[in-house]
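Please annotate this fold before class:
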Amino acid sequence: MRSEAAVLICLLAGPALAQGVPEPPGYKLDDYRSPVPDTLQGAQVVDTPAARALWQDGGAVFVDVFPRPPRPDNLPEGTLWIDKPRATIPGAAWLPNTGYGRMPPGMNAYLEQGLDAATAGDKAAPVVFFCQINCWMSWNAAKRAMTELGYARVIWYPDGLDGWSFEDLPLDKIQPWAP
């Protein structure tokens, strides 16, 4: 009887699980490292071969939104803090911390200025947002670029740097974009 109930639960839950993660009505506000939707309404979603083709064409701007580790609070005064460079897709602009659901003060302006610099002010330029697999940061940033900043050709690459690295594609070390 118990195994029959388990089978019935699996049969009933199967279609719901197969539908994947639904898009939230707003931004994802927590648990940023969790399964992401297959879609982002209004954006084109690409896999690694498509991202590679866009990169090789050179017609799209790539934006890495992976968070930047903060300077430790407990460092003695006067200690030199040097940020580690990030290995990312060559030519990408790193706009760290711009994928939070609730943006820290000044971060909206940083995202807007960084995108403006990366696209040379062209809001019709294709912009590929990425982070890592199962990272809501790129989903949030891509949505924000469309809905709040008016970018018309937003592309979301949900496999991000993990998918890129898995295919052994080239990487460059960069520092965060600075105004």
